[in-house]
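Supplementary Methods S3. Complex input for the S-adenosylmethionine-bound model.
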Amino acid sequence: MNSPHPSWRDAWTAALYADEGFYRTGRPIDHFRTSAHLGLFATSISELVRREGSATVVDLAAGGGEMLTALHALVGDDVELIGVEIADRPESLPPSIGWLPTLPDRIDGLLIANEWLDNVPCDVVEVDEAGVVREVLVDPKTGEESLGHEFESAWLRDWWPISQPGERAEIGETRDAAWADAVARVSGTAIAIDYGHTRSDRPPYGSLRSYVGGRETDVIPDGRRDVTAHVAVDSVASAVGAAVLTQREALGRLGLDASRPSLDLATTDPAAYLHDLAAAGEAGELVAKSGLGDFWWLITDTRGHGTLTA
Ligand SMILES: C[S@@+](CC[C@H](N)C(=O)[O-])C[C@H]1O[C@@H](n2cnc3c(N)ncnc32)[C@H](O)[C@@H]1O
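Predicted complex, serialized as structure tokens:
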């Protein structure tokens, strides 16, 4: 009970965001592939920008600016583009794209946050042998865990009730609050995109994971690997009044087409065929079952236009 080790939430925060933390010293693209690394994702965002007439696009957790760079190639300087990122501005970023360490107070247009909320640290809890829910503590060097104090949480009761010894949960309150703060700044549309679960399919032992260099690895908050947990999307959606679509549904509504080109094209115009085939492969990856297509889009239209959700 008197463990010298921090809570998961504190260890996770330090591991990712302290001076020598994982996201201070490296770029996400060196470790995993996200939708933002696929050019057709920006194409779909540009279609949303066109339909909404957005004056500004803010990409929260902009990584290496990949999505904004691709979007800039499509919309030019007609739309103000801003990356919000704790990491330094990428040297290759087109000069007209803004780069800020924190969110601006007001956003007139579109706010996108792809794979941000899964990196917002949470308290982690576990039911002990006596049926008491306790905070999980962790040794940041080894990942070895112990149980700390009893953990009282209205969020847990409302969104992720656990009672059997060994069951675990990640307390999503920090994500709800973080996204609510972001959405409150927006006049337009705010979209959080992430992997997650809802009350009907919570993972009984939680979903803490670590990745580094393109592979899953032991979960240790040592600053040398990512630490992530799936997002309780129903709770976040409830906190901000968001509509929820899968990425497959959302990109379909934005006109993304994952169908393969006709084989006839291969003989009449081989170059066009190869181009279309590559595009179909990329689109397929964005809408894949058991992959990016299962990601959740939490969409809040603060002006009630309902471009994506109507
Ligand atoms: C999983 S990466 C996603 C990057 C990019 N959106 C993508 O989809 O490729 C998470 C990113 O969130 C950034 N991040 C985490 N907390 C942040 C915060 N409070 N403000 C700005 N960026 C943040 C990290 O530095 C990291 O680049």
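Residues 23, 28, 34, 36, 61-63, 84-87, 114-116, 119 surround S-adenosylmethionine (CB under 6 Å). The chain has ten helices and 16 strands.
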